[in-house]
Amino acid sequence: MPEGHTIHRHARLQRAALAGERIRAWSPQGRFEAGAAKINGSVLDEVEALGKHLFYRWDSGDILHVHLGLFGKFKTFETDPPPPTDMTRLAMANGRAVVYLAGPTTCELITPEEEEELRARIGPDPLADPRGGRRFAGNLSQRRIPIGAALLDQQIIAGVGNVYRAEVLFKCGIDPHRPADQIDGDDTAKLWSTIRSELRRGEAAGRIVTVAPHDAGVRTRADIPREERLYVYKRGGIPCRRCGETVLSTEMANRLIWWCPTCQPARPPT
Ligand SMILES: [Zn+2]
Q: How far is the CA of 216 from the centre of ligand 1 (A)?
């Protein structure tokens, strides 16, 4: 499942490619035929990301809501687009570019009221709402679930997926089992700012690299080899990059999570 940085990157690239112009929209697959016909010929005013959701605003007043889910994919072509396939739910094109959307969990037109209801259920997104840290802290303080599970709950914080939850907890030195309501103010602030800076870096680069260059023995982030770009994710049984302790894994919120018991001690050092 794409994490928030990917969704924000889609929004930014599609805004650059499509916004401000009249768009030809159609549904090659047919499953979004009526919706596509409604936005066809409208000007796309804005593409906005919130967590793992995308909102497309049209000058007709229509709002298109997309959630990629596990299998959804966008493909953007600036030159020589291939024809869409019969999996393409929605195609959007202007004179310069074409975007194909296939396999999303959600692709629907919604009313402003429905958007408002949806937004009320989505937690603060560090990329969309830099000041959301207080809401994040408030959400954590009300939950007794492990912090490793809390970070995947899109009502607590929006946009964090399985890679980032493991990596940011490592970078902040927090054991994933620690109950969310026992994370103190300093650690909560550190978590929020780490998540924000990692998501921003991922959005800009189009990939997740959390390892600091010095921990990989190289000078710049660009020099980090693909297999060295993460600290703990999918590294169970392998020595920790920082301390050499064996990285552990367990299931948390139905997904595996990895952590280093030395760098992320069960109790914070006093
Ligand atoms: Zn370690």
A: 14
Q: Is 86 exposed, middle or buried (0-12, 13-18, 19+ CB in 10 A)?
A: exposed
Tokens read off for 209: 């690299």
pLDDT by residue (tens digit) across 39-91?
999 999 999 999 999 999 999 999 999 999 989 999 999 988 999 999 999 99
> Any catalytic annotation for residue 75?
no
Let me know if 255 is a catalytic residue.
Answer: yes
CA 81 – ligand 1 centroid, Å: 47
- 3 is an active site residue: yes
**How, if at all, do strands 44-50 and 24-26 pair?**
unpaired
**Is 0.70 surpassed by the pTM of this model?**
yes
Annotated catalytic residue, options 9, 28, 52, 165 = 52
- Cα distance between residue 86 and residue 250, in whole Å: 39
Is-catalytic flag, 239?
A: no
CA of 132 to the centre of ligand 1 (A): 30
Residue whose structure tokens are 């710049």 = 220
Report CA Rg, the chain: 20
Distance from chain centroid for Cα 101: 17
CA distance 176 to 88: 39
